[in-house]
Every structure is written in structure tokens, then in C-alpha cells.
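At this stage, I wrote out one protein's amino acid sequence and its C-alpha cells, and that material follows here:
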Amino acid sequence: MEENRIFQIVADVVLGQGSNEDIQAFAELALRCVKNKGDERPSMREVTIELRRILQLVRSKDSKLSNETGSALTRLA
């Protein structure tokens, strides 16, 4: 799916909750899940693995941001 199209569809509330990369990964998984042919859709196991991967990326980014913010505050003190 075209990246620009994804962000036209997704509500502004959702866009504020994650990075464009995270939202795009989630949207692409969702699109795979609604394919007409069952053999084109991922199994529940594949969906679980992909959702965990996306969550891990989000947490990793949040942790990095938190560490950077903490370091900056320490330098200011």
C-alpha cells in the first residue's frame, strides 16, 4: 500500500501514537489479514509474531528516547 494513502486513511489520533514506520507496518499487516483468499492471509501464528515484532520496535524506540531524555536532563542538572 502506498505510504501516503495509509496516512490519508488512518485517523489523526492514531498518527500521534507512533512513528510513521510503525503505523505503516501495522497497516500492511492489517491489509494482509483481510485478503479475499484465505491462502493469501497470514496464519494467527504469523500475525502474533509480526505484532510482537512491531511492539518490540516501538518499545525499543521508546526506551532509546527515554534514555536520551534522561541523559540530557542529567547534563543540565
